Amino acid sequence: MSARIDHLLLPVNDLDTSFDFYCNALGFERGGMHGRFEMVKLNEGTSLLLTQYATEGGMHLAFSFPESEFDEIFERIKAKSFPFGDRFDRAGNGRRTRHLLDGSKQEPHRVANLIGEAL
């Protein structure tokens, strides 16, 4: 079987704030409005569909970026005052992670492509 995830629906409290986080801070591409959904293109063929819907958050998303790209992304996150965890953790696979919050209390985090680096 050759299945892949095409899109995920992500409820958010504020479309503008969440769009700012995913597109302007993380650097994903805006796909425009599709009905009541704001499309965020993660890569060729995979999208997040943001929908304005009251949420208490808690959705956990993990994105993998090369170290060099994440350093730039993290500077944008800090400049925009998006909240983030106070330290790096290790995922079960040994990769370094940093927890971030997207403005709707959803919890995307970065998983480093480097394994075994010091915390």
Question: Can you describe this structure in just a few lines?
Answer:
With 119 residues, the chain is an alpha/beta fold. It contains 2 helices and 8 strands, in the order βαββββαβββ. The strands form 2 sheets. A 4-stranded mixed β-sheet has the order 1-4-3-2, with helices on one face. A 4-stranded mixed β-sheet has the order 5-8-7-6, with helices on one face.
Structure description:
Helices cover 20% and strands 45% of the residues. It has 119 residues and is an alpha/beta fold. Strands 1-4-3-2 form a four-stranded mixed sheet, covered by helices on one side. Strands 5-8-7-6 form a four-stranded mixed sheet, with helices on one face. The longest helix is centred in the middle third of the chain and has 13 residues, at 67-79. The radius of gyration is 14 Å and the shape is globular.
